[in-house]
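Two proteins, back to back. First:
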Amino acid sequence: MTRDEAVEVARVHLREIYGDGPPTIVMQPELSVEHDMAWAVRFDSQEHLDTGDITQAPMVRMIVVFKDGSFVGFPPSAYTTEQSKTWLATGQRPRKPF
């Protein structure tokens, strides 16, 4: 999957969540990062970009798009940085610590 394809998948997903807004969603493909198994696609709100007011920004500004289409959505917030890197690189969810 190319970056452009991942950005489009993320855009469609965000449209289902936010509709026409507000917030007004702005895709940021230049900030998106390719991992072995997935794309981390960045976005923001036009309201945040225009004002610099962090309260106008979406709480999470990244959508994960797995290249095989198996997952499109917000990244799990309970993962550590290392667990997130592993998940994006391998597609394997980390084991529970207990």
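And the second protein:
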Amino acid sequence: MSKNDDANGFAEQGLQLVCVSHLPDVFARYVGSNSHVNRYPIVLYDNNSENVGIAERYNHFIEQQMGEGWIIFMHHDFCFDEDPLLRIHRLPMNSIYGVIGVRLEKGQRYAYLGLSRKYGLMLQAGHYYNRRLLGRIKCLPGFVEEQILGTPVKAPALVDTVDCCCLMVHSSLIRRYQLRFDPRFAWHFYSEDFSLNAQRSHGIETRVVQMDCGHYGYGRLDEDFYQSRRYLVKKYRGMLFSSTCYVPPKAEGIERFAGGKGLLLLF
């Protein structure tokens, strides 16, 4: 269902927003009544009547309703506190963008000689990787004490993936490479998969843009969440990446050796 399907208006403004919601009050509070975005066409998928996965909804939009210009896929509890088009209309159209994301950076080398129940004496060596949460957004009280997440960026910053609360991409990039969301990620990790697939298949980079915005909801850590995460790791086996909801073993730090019997060297 489209809140505003004025094609001429979209052509003039160059922005279209897409949102899936099963809570009308939440959508109205953060999106529908938001003067920073409701001047633009908003395609709302009402999941009250039929609870369809978000990835499938987004694909339907791409195939049936997408115009020409910038597209913002956003959660119903995500709020822009400034006009997003003013931030993105001059950005290069060959990247995927978000407002908060994660980049892995190579840290210290390590060597660990210790005992394993399965293999006996063993040597592990490699690099630690540090996770950088880039892009500052506001969040609910109680989620973090400061009610702010992430490190602000001055220019679009390269990341592995961006959080699914807000994903921004130009329609020309979607059409050129026939980008789609994997419907097997119905509720979780669909934005991570979108970025990783674009990177692996087409060399498309994902970046974070600093905006005045907030995400005022919590994700459900249910069985579907963990199943989707396992599938994501399996699908991109061989790629080193992280996300706001996934920390790879190489980024877990020296605490993974805590309690072990062995020698750890950092250099």
